[in-house]
Amino acid sequence: MEKRCIIITAYNGNKIRDCVELSANDTIICADGGYLFAEAENVNPDIIIGDFDSMPKPVVPGCKIIELPSMKDDTDTMSCVRYATSICCDEIIIVGGIGGRLDHSLANIQAVAFIHNYGIKCTLTNGNNIIFMLENDKVTLQRKDGWTLSLLAYSRQCKGVCISGVKYPLKNAILNNAFPLGVSNEIVEDSANISVNEGQLLVIQSKIL
Questions:
Q1: What 3-state class would DSSP assign to 19?
Q2: Of 127, 155, 173, which marks where a domain is finished?
Q3: Boundary-marking domain end, from 89, 106, 127
Q4: pTM of the predicted model, to two decimals?
Q5: Nearest 10 degrees: Cα torsion 102, 156, 151, 135
């Protein structure tokens, strides 16, 4: 059975269960104030990690608490990411973390890249957006009515980018990280096929609000 870690961040615009379907086998990690969201929704964490600048250090029976110094290089979410990668999980889902402060949103997208570079499947979602990385690989996505699909180069260049089943298809295109060519596409068939031959490509599905 695959081992999955759910990281609940301190910013989340939607309910946790609207972002991810939780399983009893998940390891749930709260990043500092993310515990307040979990507590409000009766989601029981296994680990809480943070410097506890956004809430008092909690006392939660059966839950491991890792207190960080306030002066540190990593964000609380990144500390959770490091912990999750250290316990040999197969998949990490970061819940929340986008839509609030821009610096934290960008840092959490970088965290997706960090996890990807460990060879671990990773998704960042706040319920209205789903972000993951594709590198020298392909994926099929089912159509979701009322959602857009965007492809953005995370590497300096992404080569051999193909996408079919969409309003604006691409074939062997080159995307670069200084021009947003792949924004706001739309899946018009039952599914879309995406592939990239070289480079790290961000795949972003966004709900039209």
A1: helix
A2: 127
A3: 127
A4: 0.92
A5: -110
